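Dear U.,

Please find below the material for section 3 of the report. The protein was modelled together with NAP; I have listed the sequence and SMILES used, followed by the predicted complex structure.
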Amino acid sequence: MNKDSRIYIAGHRGLVGSAIHRELQRLGYTSILTRTRQELDLLDADAVYAFFAKEKPEYVFLAAAKVGGILANNTYPADFIRDNIILQTNIIDAAYKNDVARLLFLGSSCIYPKLAPQPMPESSLLTGPLEPTNRPYALAKIAGIEMCWSYNRQYGTKYLAAMPTNLYGPGDNYDLASSHVLPALIRKTAEAVRGNAPTVTVWGTGTPRRELLYSDDLAQACVFLMNLDEARYATLFTESDPPLINIGTGEDVTIRELAETVARALGYKGDLVFDATKPDGTPRKLMDVSRLHALGWHHTTTLEQGIEETWEQVSEQLLTRAE
Ligand SMILES: NC(=O)c1ccc[n+]([C@@H]2O[C@H](COP(=O)([O-])OP(=O)(O)OC[C@H]3O[C@@H](n4cnc5c(N)ncnc54)[C@H](OP(=O)(O)O)[C@@H]3O)[C@@H](O)[C@H]2O)c1
């Protein structure tokens, strides 16, 4: 990408899209295209084609998606499969019809089978049954990967699908009913700090292991991939394998270690209590990031730093929040 290349970020207000937006601005890109949902509903095919025809983006980060936790996925499975298939289809096809040079389609680790080997390599795609709770969402994302691959084969495009591990960062969802493990721990610990509570209760035994990537590091990885020189970029596209790359740290921690790190970052001096009557979830979920490492990208933010930076940005909001 040149500094004046026309770069469209679909979903620029989300956790992922906003981090990519900040990173591109930090690096001095001057022609970043963004549209809010009110300005451009990505489910509206005519509007998407008209936008691409008028603005002619050269590079596209596809970070728009209908996302949610287990509850939302279980309650609205039709919405999850429909909206994701429609919006990604609109964007990928409009990109092809308007000669977009490179497109990065964001998915997630839920595309891999429930019992994939750990760490999960890209080659485990479609080797076993998916986790049922978010199967409609995962299948929409798998369709998006297959669509990138098919367009590459039929039309000679170079569209890449990137699968990030669990992310965290300032733009995260801190609602306890629907948040992921780390924002939930930050929120609970913040409430304990505010209320001087002697204990924080953590769901489960504390033994499951999770991999976490700071959203700014993900954004750096996305820009790194988009900027790969032709020779290295070409290695990601073969006849025999989908154009797929995992993005993660390749390291995981136990929920106990995570809760302790949060407590340290927030200066919480009370005790952590593990409620083993609550479900643990899957014992381990770790990405195999050897493909990304071989290209030359490694994460730079440690979990401690990432949690401290996140806390700096959300502490006021969480410490003063009304019940
Ligand atoms: N968060 C994670 O831990 C994580 C981990 C791995 C992968 N990912 C992947 O990264 C991608 C983005 O996730 P995220 O966490 O950034 O989600 P997010 O915070 O919910 O952001 C999604 C964005 O898409 C926009 N959007 C959705 N439907 C739209 C529509 N019909 N028209 C226009 N805009 C629309 C949303 O707009 P509004 O702001 O108007 O709602 C929002 O800005 C997803 O593919 C997800 O699977 C996320």
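For the text of the report, you could mention the following: The radius of gyration is 20 Å.

Regards,
Y.
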